[in-house]
Amino acid sequence: METWVPDFIAWLEALPPVGIYAVLLGVAYGENLVPPIWGDTVIVLCGSLVGLGVLSFWPTVALASLGGAAGFLTVFAVGRRLGVAIHDPTRWRWIPRSALARVEGWLDRWGYAVIAANRFLAGGRAVIGLLAGASALRWRPTMVWATVSAIAWSVLLVWGGALLGREYDRLLEWLAQYGRVVTALLAVCLLGVAIRRWRRRPKNSPRRDPPGAALPPSGG
Q1: pTM of the model
Q2: pLDDT by residue (tens digit) across 157-175?
Q3: What does the domain layout of the chain look like in residue ranges?
Q4: Among 72, 32, 132, 78, which Cα is nearest to 40's?
Q5: Maximum separation of any 2 CA atoms in the chain, in Å
């Protein structure tokens, strides 16, 4: 568990409920724009406060979902604005190239299913919105599936935090392990897709010798 977590939850508990809700909304929104923000950790901690009776379950889920979906759609709009320029490494050096390639493979293969699962995809969610916006995906289904994903993930985190209460560190450790496992599984899946595409690539046409090149020598 991160060393700042106990101090952070103590700071949260010192706030009035409306202040905690505001922090939750801001962090859930901001983690899409600034990936180093520990959004899932904050949602779990707020879930812990639900279990302690400080916050209410459904308002916590609603604000976490609203912030997550709104942040994703903001990044989607940025990706739509950038278009194909997002792939230019000389202009957008802050975007990791490996993550772009990985997420592009997901979108090419699964389309809107990636949007529906984006909250569950550790290691790729930060650039899913950007690439989804730069691709041909449409606004309305993207908005619907991003919201569904945010609600499902928020319910799980808030419920888990509420269930564990002060023992939230167990859930945070599970999330860390989950992230590593999901990243490894996705890497294996993408490797399999790449191998299958390589095997299905069109075969090179057989080489043809110029006319007369293969004629047998004359017997005289």
Answers
A1: 0.75
A2: 899 888 877 776 666 676 6
A3: 5-200
A4: 32
A5: 107
